[in-house]
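HUMAN: Spend a minute on the protein record below and explain its fold to me.
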Amino acid sequence: MPFAPSLLGLVLWVATHGVQGLSLSTRCSVEGINSFLAEDDMAEVLVAYSISSNGSFGEAGNVAYPQNATHLPSLCAATINITSSSTSSYTFGVFLPDEWNKRFLAVGNGGFSGDINWYAMGTGAKYGFATISTSTGHNSTSQDMSWALNNPETKADWAGRSLHGSTILAKAIVAGYYGNAARKSYYSGCSTKGRQGVKSAQDHPEDFDGILAGAPAGMSTSQQLWQLKVGAINLPVDGPGYLPNALFEVIGQEVLRQYDGSDGVDDGVIMDPKHCNFRPEKLLCTSSPVNRSACLTAPQVSTLKQLYLPLIQLDADVNNLTYIYPNFGLGSEVQMLSSFGPNNEPSLYGTDYAKNYLFDDLDWDWKVNFNYSTFVEATKRNPGNVNANNFNLSTFHGRGGKLVQYHGYADGLIPTDVSRVLYDETWMAMAEQGIDLDDFYRLFLVPGMQHCSGSMYDAPWYFGASEHSSNLEANGQHVFPVPGLDDPQHDALLALVSWVEGGKGVNELVATKYANDTVS
């Protein structure tokens, strides 16, 4: 009896093969891309443009990512709107390069920012990926959370629904546009973008075959309140223990002085801060008259010691401690400032999160209402289901998925131990099922690297991770591909592709540092 294809299979065959006679420029139109979407997708193509080689693309009014993607290959750029509920919607952008590498890539969004990350998408297109980014349902800067107030559906979009929904529809567009589905699908992102990737592996393991996740903000509800807590530790500004911004570079230099050579080499890099027993007392002001710009008073030393302590709660049962959030690591001092806010307040990452995202209450006052119960309530509410705490990755593993995670030891925004906790919790969940975590999940800790990229002390930090190439381009240079570094040993995304498609595990990554971050 001859084989009879299913109706679904027949429809897909017609959809993907019916475009073969059309040129890419013909397909790159609102009408052309709309034809690749189903009527019940609740989606609408807003714009579609053909971009010539070496062209640029971005959108006016994008406050989160105002930079255009530049030096693009010839491609089709389109924006699609998806209605996610009766009160919410989100957009996503897609780059469809003429010279396609048969792969799909999604990139993410940082902090609480919303809108399409065209700048990061540009790097993906230069590799040859069909690349997407979602707006997450709003348009704002990283610390602006006003969009979340009394908007539970928009919170759900930001927390993960928009990335999943965008990925599903974007894959349909890619298949229709090229006449073939992507061979493999990948994700790359750091910080909130890293959380988006890890959460995809946890909640939607079918979305991506390979995920590159840096400094994932997976403990999101605790993280924002931790930033409020550490910001409050360094207040009030007229108190005896207050550490002004300028002192953090002094502190960082003292940490480096005490432990730079702990690995046997004086190179401006602390290889592993866990091996350091920092003595902040050596910064005490002892000379007379006192130069307050180069030393610390005893109350200031006390404040500094608190910043290096993890957040742990002694429960009613004195035999039980609750680990809430890790501490700043040694070497992260210069970037600690991100947790301190203006006007005698902690960072907006903490205060505005509590007001707009967690409690929907603009009158909430951290000086009155903030205590341990706030952490308990945040975990209970988990608005939008934002936390990446489903550590059972057995389905992702069973599909052959691979996850490469990295974190800078000098990260002063999301402590390095956040990644250790995520890795350890996942290890335990997998061990219970007899699965070796090393089969599909690797964690790299990067000496001297700050949050996602960069270093104050000339540590090597470039290894082709999320937005590394675009960060090198910040001073106007066009550096893709980075000369001599476009291989799996020096490029984490290429290493991930090699692992997914060739079975070669990622055992090492070689980082590079250019003088003044200028490629010459």
